[in-house]
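Students often ask why inverse folding is considered easier than folding. One informal answer: many sequences map to the same fold, so there is more than one right answer. In these notes we will look at a single instance of the problem. The structure comes first.
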């Protein structure tokens, strides 16, 4: 199937020339392209148009899960009939295995896997191997080891109606594919045999495949796992392995022998050095893992032995999402695949930094006998390895870095917005109060000045964002503004995702007039109601006040026709000068375009959607006054307000489960996690009630 863009809108502003330039570059076989697109210019829509025109499978890499989910939803809207999938780390919580020699402290790996994200990861790999019209939106998980695509594909199980069936052979085959046998309720990656009925639930969907069997397969049904309604009757069904790290029987024998040989070599090394503790640790640890692999084909931490099972030489890079794309494009005889690096000024440094941190931790484990040296080969790609494995790459950013600009064969600007909105006016004001010789105040201090400007904006029904350099300053300023009777909240890294959604929605609704923040205000906070952005201490050179950061923050006021940014500075730094120069260049170009075409900019009208309300999630708000004072409260499971609900607990649980699945399907995993916790609490209450009733009867 071909990529087909489904939209009522035609490219506008700078989009047509940007699309033309990028498509031309790709067709001329440019390996590196950059799209310099300002905030609100419709960069995602431009990329979607490029994908439709070049018809190449595409990997989009974003720098965090939330941004990846937003992009995935946008691409699904543009390509409803194509495969648009989401690939991020499947851990809700992850504590990596580590050892601290100075205190002799071993920290065992502890992880909580999000089953819904695991399902979506399998949907990604299966879509790549079976379709040409695939867009994968990923985090930097795309450069981590997920096993060999050839091995994964070779273990696929194909069952057809009328096929002769060996029950025992089928059972052994599924167990070899890491499916679990159950006599109870089916879950993803499990199967069940009951008489002449054989049920399988694959890893990538919560649907049941039911086989009615005798000596042959008589019928195959596709059944809804919740309602148990038959969706359709099938002629055949395909099943991929339940885990990405799978082991073929032939590879397993050779790998086990290789592991034992390397184990003996390492044990001899420790024995020669007189390191008896390390000797015993390694012997016990690897011995147990080998026994598990030999017995059930899997062990916890099997990825640390992936080099053996994938027949890789020491030091060779692991198989990642990029290898799946290469394998699929060669199989489909495609012309290659497109990689899009979203917000490249943040994402590229993230890709560069993954390898070194991982290697440092594992070297300590290896030195002290917790792992074989092969653990170093279960790692993310180095940047040079990543660069060697991609085909055409497109860097997308409002502020591309020097690497993107130096390496790109094609550079396309997208400065003119389809809406006609221009970059905000930038004003410089002093940080400290200034008086004349008579003692009269000539310039207010930055805090007094921002209070004065905020009052004007609020009286006009508009909103304000204020950025500070530290969490403490954000909290103190919030408290000060509350004392001045402003409706204000703050955002920084201690604020959880769900509460962040509440605060931003509250600003849009008018529950708050001001948000005070630190670095969270840079990317992904596009609120059309905001007309004033105040950057405090703008002359303090550093990461948060670099020209890139300043331009990104200035862009937060670009969705309102009255947008203005105030930089509070007592001196003009190089970063301020460069940021103002670039903003002025863009603004002049936008104003000239509007004048030429008679366009009057209008503030974006954007529907206020509250994801929490859409999925029936209870509010997590806490006392803002206490928060402003810097007090921090840990959030436990959400309290469940069951008063006035006459339904049984079982009915409420069923409704919550439906809401949880809907949230997960919409990639709202934080919301799905809260619903999951509510379900657990409801079930706990149900058990308590049953226990009480049982005691009463006795």
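Output (designed amino acids):
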């Amino acid at each position: 199937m071909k990529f087909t863009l489904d939209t009522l809108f035609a490219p506008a502003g700078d989009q047509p020339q940007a699309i033309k330039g990028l498509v031309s570059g790709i067709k001329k076989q440019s390996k590196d392209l950059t799209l310099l697109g300002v905030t609100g210019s419709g960069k995602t829509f431009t990329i979607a148009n490029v994908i439709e025109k070049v018809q190449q499978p595409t990997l989009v890499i974003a720098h965090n899960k939330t941004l990846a989910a937003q992009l995935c939803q946008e691409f699904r809207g543009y390509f409803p009939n194509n495969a648009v999938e989401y690939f991020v780390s499947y851990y809700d919580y992850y504590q990596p295995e580590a050892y601290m020699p100075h205190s002799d402290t071993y920290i065992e790996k502890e992880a909580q896997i999000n089953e819904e994200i695991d399902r979506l990861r399998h949907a990604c790999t299966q879509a790549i191997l079976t379709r040409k019209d695939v867009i994968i939106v990923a985090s930097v998980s795309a450069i981590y080891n997920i096993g060999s695509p050839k091995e994964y594909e070779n273990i696929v199980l194909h069952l057809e109606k009328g096929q002769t069936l060996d029950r025992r052979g089928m059972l052994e085959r599924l167990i070899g594919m890491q499916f679990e046998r159950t006599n109870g309720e089916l879950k993803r990656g499990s199967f069940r045999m009951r008489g002449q009925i054989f049920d399988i639930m694959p890893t990538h969907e919560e649907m049941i495949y039911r086989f009615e069997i005798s000596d042959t397969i008589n019928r195959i049904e596709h059944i809804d796992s919740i309602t148990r309604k038959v969706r359709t009757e099938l002629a055949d069904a395909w099943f991929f392995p339940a885990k990405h790290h799978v082991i073929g029987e032939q590879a397993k024998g050779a790998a086990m022998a290789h592991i034992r040989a390397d184990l003996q070599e390492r044990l001899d090394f420790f024995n020669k050095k007189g390191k008896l503790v390390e000797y015993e640790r390694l012997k016990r640890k690897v011995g147990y893992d080998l026994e598990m692999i030999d017995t059930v084909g899997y062990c916890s931490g099997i990825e640390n032995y992936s080099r053996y099972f994938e027949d890789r030489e020491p030091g060779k890079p692991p198989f990642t999402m990029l290898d799946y794309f290469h394998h699929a494009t060669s199989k489909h005889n495609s012309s290659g695949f497109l990689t899009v690096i979203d917000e490249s000024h943040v994402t590229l440094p993230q890709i560069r930094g993954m390898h070194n941190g991982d290697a440092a931790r594992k070297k300590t484990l290896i030195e002290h006998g917790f792992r074989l040296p092969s653990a170093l080969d279960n790692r993310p790609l180095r940047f040079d390895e990543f660069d060697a494995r991609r085909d055409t790459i497109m860097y997308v950013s409002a502020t591309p870095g020097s690497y993107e600009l130096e390496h790109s064969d094609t550079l396309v600007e997208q400065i003119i917005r389809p809406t006609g909105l221009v970059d905000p006016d930038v004003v410089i004001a002093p940080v400290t109060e200034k008086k004349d010789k008579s003692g009269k105040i000539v310039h207010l201090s930055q805090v007094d000045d921002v209070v004065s400007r905020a009052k004007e904006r609020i009286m006009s029904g508009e909103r304000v964002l204020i950025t500070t350099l530290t969490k403490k300053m954000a909290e103190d300023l919030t408290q000060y503004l509350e004392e001045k009777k402003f409706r204000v909240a703050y955002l920084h890294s201690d604020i959880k995702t769900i509460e962040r959604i509440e605060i931003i929605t509250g600003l849009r609704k008018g529950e708050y007039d001001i948000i005070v923040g630190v670095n969270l205000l840079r990317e992904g906070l596009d609120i059309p109601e905001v007309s004033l952005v105040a950057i405090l201490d703008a002359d303090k050179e550093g990461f948060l006040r670099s020209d890139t950061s300043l331009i990104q923050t200035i862009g937060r006021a670009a969705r309102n026709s009255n947008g203005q940014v105030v930089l509070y500075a007592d001196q003009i730094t190089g970063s301020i000068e460069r940021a103002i120069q670039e903003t002025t260049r863009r603004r002049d170009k936008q104003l000239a375009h509007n004048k030429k075409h008679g366009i009057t900019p209008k503030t974006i009208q954007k529907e206020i959607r509250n994801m929490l309300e859409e999925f029936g999630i209870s509010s997590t708000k806490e006392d803002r006054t206490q928060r402003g004072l810097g007090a921090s409260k840990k959030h436990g499971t959400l309290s469940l307000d069951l008063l006035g609900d006459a339904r049984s607990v079982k009915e409420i649980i069923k409704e919550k489960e439906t809401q949880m699945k809907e949230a997960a399907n919409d990639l709202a995993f934080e919301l799905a996690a809260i619903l999951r916790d509510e379900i657990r609490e409801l079930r706990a209450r149900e058990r308590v009630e049953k226990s009480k009733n049982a005691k009463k009867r006795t």
